[in-house]
Amino acid sequence: MPAALAVSGLVKRYGAVEALGGVDLEVREGELVGLLGPNGAGKSTLVKIAVGLVRPTAGQAALAGAVAGSLAARRALGYLAELFRFPGWYTADEVLLLHQRLAGSDGGAEERRRLLELVALADARDRRVEAMSKGMQQRLGIAQALVGEPRVLLLDEPTSALDPVGRRTVRLLLEELRGRGVAVLLNSHLLSEVELVCDRVAILLDGKVVAAGTPAELARPRGVEIETDAGLETIAGAGREDAPRLVAERVAAGRQVYGVRVLTSTLEEVYLEKVGGATS
Q1: Which H/E stretch holds residue 93?
Q2: Where are the domains of the chain?
Q3: How many CA atoms lie within 13 A of 24 on its CB side?
Q4: What integer best gives the mean pLDDT of the chain?
Q5: What are the distances in angstroms from CA 212 to CA 30, 75, 107, 253?
Q6: pTM given for the model
Q7: Which listed CATH number (3.40.50.300, 3.40.50.1820, 3.40.50.1260, 3.80.10.10) goes with 3-217?
Q8: In the predicted model, what is the mean pLDDT of residues 161-184?
Q9: Torsion-angle region of residue 25: left (phi > 0), alpha (psi -120 to 50) or beta?
Q10: Residues 6+ apart with CB under 8 A from 274
Q11: How far is residue 14's CA from residue 37's CA, in Å, rounded to a whole number?
């Protein structure tokens, strides 16, 4: 079975400017992949090519085995842009009805009810968009991206306008979608959110993937911290595999061991190391 989203050797040039310089990326069914990078790294160009709004100069992008931009690819896709706006006079239910018509979904009122419940807007079904908070509008945007049960979901900064409770709601939603086999590409600047929810991460810089893997794979060991009756001790350079030996040595020496913690770099530290002085 082909990957839900497959990008191979993707190149995009705007005149003399190279926005993408040979990007390879896969998102499999039931996988959440975070796309990171500073402004100008090529993230938006990659997403626009996947959606079918921009044609690549070279390389290929496919969704569910169909060429990006084709009718079959669009049918498999759900998309939430970073900057979107629904008609203020529409209710939440009417927004979803409009997108059902645009997507050719036959889910009807039951699909709309289920999606509003999924994003915690069941009680706002008849509320107009102009009367909603930014967070509510953001969650409604996620609901419209799920109209028609897409196999692939492209989300551009989906938690940018949300408070901590709203972010947790979206995080739980993404985890539920993963369980249903939906593939999600998440473009975000919130590294802590990406680290919490994503299975894999790809970091773009100057149109190229400079790091890719699970957060655990990208993290570097920073030592082992052991708390004993003599105090807190950090053993630099030690890793997870060293922890049992280090604890056993201190127990053999007559120390009381109260806790042990393996220290690794955070995703933020990995990101800053890879992008250097480039800013978002």
Answers
A1: helix 92-103
A2: 3-217, 221-264
A3: 5
A4: 89
A5: 18, 28, 37, 42
A6: 0.83
A7: 3.40.50.300
A8: 85
A9: beta
A10: 203, 205, 210, 211
A11: 19
